[in-house]
Amino acid sequence: MSAALPAPFLQACRRLATPFTPVWLMRQAGRYMPEYRAMRARHGFLELCKNPAAAAEVTLQPVDALGVDAAILFADILLVLEPLGVGLEFTRGEGPHIERPVKSAEDVARLVPVVVDEAVPFVFEAVRLVRKQLADRVPLIGFAGAPFTLASYLIEGGPSREFLRTKRFMRDEPAAWHALMTRLADITVAYVNGQIAAGVQAVQLFDSWVGTLSPADYRDSVLPHSRSVIERVTPGIPVIHFGTGTGGLLSLMKAAGGDVIGLDWRVEIAPAWERLGPDVAVQGNLDPAVLLAGIGEIRRGVKEILDAVAGRPGHIFNLGHGIHKETPVDSVVALVDMVHELSTR
Ligand code: CP3
Questions:
Q1: What are the residue ranges in the chain where pLDDT is below 70?
Q2: Count of C-beta atoms within a 10 Å radius of residue 70
Q3: What Rg value do the Cα atoms of the chain yield, rounded?
Q4: For residues 248 and 245, what is the distance between their CA atoms, to the nearest angstrom?
Q5: Does residue 59 have its Cβ closer than 6 Å to ligand 1?
Q6: Atom in ligand 1 nearest the alpha carbon of residue 208
Q7: Is the C-beta atom of 27 inside 6 A of ligand 1?
Q8: d(Cα 248, Cα 198) in Å, to the nearest integer?
Q9: Which atom of ligand 1 has the smallest separation from the CA of 95?
Q10: Mutation test of ligand 1: which of 76, 143, 153, 166 has the most ligand atoms closer than 8 Å to its C-beta?
Q11: What is the per-residue pLDDT across 277-304, written as a single tens digit (0 to 9) for each?
Q12: Cβ-based neighbours of 21, under 8 Å, separated by 6 or more
C-alpha cells in the first residue's frame, strides 16, 4: 500500500488494508472503563497482571467496547522490575512504588539476575489466550519499557517530575549507569521477544519520560541502549518507539530505531514527520485531555490532526499519552468512529 509503511507492519496489522486510518489508544484499557473498574474491585493491579485469564479479558474489553483497530496487551512495563528484588508495588491512587530504589553502584551490583521467561510466564500466557480469543479479528500489540524509563523508576522509586536522582546517578556513576542500562536492555529484549514468541504482532517501546533529557545526554547515555534493544527485536516484527516531550530528540530517537515513531501532543504532527523523514511511520498525537471536552471539540481535534497528515500513508491515529480516568467512554467510542469516518478515502 505505502512506501512509508514498512511491509511487516502492514502484514501484522491486517486492518491497515481497510480504507481508513487505523486507531488504537494509549492505555486503551483502564479505570475510565466500568468493565475494568469491576475487575479491579475484585483484584489488585499486580494480581490482575499475573492472572492470564483476567489479563486476557481486560485486553479484549476495549476491542469490543471501542471498535479500535488493534488490541493492546494488558500488562505493565514495570512487571520485569519486580524479580530484580527491589520491592515493586502499586499503591492505590499513587501509581508504582519501588521500596528499595537503586542509590549506588553497589545497589546495581546487588540486583538479582533475572530470567525473564521464568519471571513473567503469566504475561506470555495472557498473549496466547488473547490471540486465541481474538481469532485474528485485529492484531495484538505487545510492549515494554525502554531502558531509560525503567531506570528512572528504579532510581527515583516512583513517579517523578524532575528526575534529579536519575540525572545525578547518570553523571556521578557513569560505569554503574551503563551497567544498569545494559541489564535493563537485556531484560527488555527478553520481555518483548517472549511476547512475540507467544504471539504479539507488533511491539511498542515506551520511553515515556525520556523528554526530560538534553539531546546530548540522550545521545551519550541512552541512545546506545535503546538501539541495542530495537536491533535485537525478533526480525519482521514492527517496533513503535514512543516518548513524551521529545520535540528536541526526534532525530536521535529515529537514529535509535523503530518502524514507527510515537509522538505526544506537544509537537505539531506534520512538521515533526517532516523532520523525521519519509522512511518512518508516525503514531499520534491527540492531547488525551481533549476527550474531556464536548463532542464538537473532539471532532475539531481529530480533524486538525487528519488534515495536517492529509491522507499520507503511514499515519496511525493515537492519543499523545494515556487516557485520563475521568474520560467518558462514549467520547472514546465517538473518537474512534470519527477517525474512521473522517479518514475514509
Ligand atoms: O490498554 C493499555 O494501554 C494496556 C496496558 C498498559 C498499562 N501500562 C496498564 C496499566 C500499558 C501500555 C502500560 C504502560 C506503562 N506503564 C507505561 C508507559 C506508558 C505511559 O503511560 O507512559 C508506564 C510509564 C507504566 C508504569 C505505570 N503503571 C504507571 C505510571 C501507573 C500508574 C499511573 C496510571 O496511569 O494509573 C501504572 C498502572 C497501570 N498500568 C494502570 C493500567 C491500566 C492503572 C492501574 C490501576 O488500575 O489502578
A1: 1-18
A2: 24
A3: 19
A4: 8
A5: no
A6: 22
A7: yes
A8: 36
A9: 32
A10: 76
A11: 999 999 999 999 999 999 999 999 999 9
A12: 306, 309, 315, 316, 317, 339, 340, 343
